[in-house]
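MOLECULE: protein
FOLLOWS: sequence and fold
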Amino acid sequence: MLIKTIPVGQLEENCYVVTDENTLNCAVIDPGDESNTILDYLEDNRLHCQVILLTHGHFDHVGAVDAIREETGAAVYMHPADDTGGRDLRRPYRLGAEGHPYHEGDVVCVDALRFEVLETPGHTPGSVTLRCGEALFTGDTLFRGSCGRTDLEGSSTEDMLRSLKRLCALPGDYEVYPGHNEPSTLVRERNMNYYCRQAMQVK
């Protein structure tokens, strides 16, 4: 599995291209902006985008979805709780009739890559974390040393704490690939992230 991070847009959202190195088929996670930058990476490396996976529907994570879908024919997946229309922070992205809703426990495969959906609401009602091998793509749920905002319409501090507790309870360690800023590990966040430590005390 090859993971490429492409920061895009004014908010420097992390778009991830996750590739099966044996077939060069890939998934694009959260293409938030700069579709040409993402498509150029795919073309330069002869990659074939099979699916677009969204951790949630906010504009900075979905701005390049339509352009990449039109260029590659990839299927788009998002949790339906975020499928309420619009493209700003208060009104998440519209998945549309051609999109595919996914839920807790669903698995989307790209050859040997297996993306399992973990529902982690809090930042938005439909926020998910995608688990693939030893990697967690956490969107705006878990950041290095922090977590996503819960002061937006549809956000919930209580749900966020429950989601963080759930992630921290996963056995072992994982590489954490957040929606913004630098990657981390789950062990580091359990030990050093104030919000995770607070969440682990929630009953």
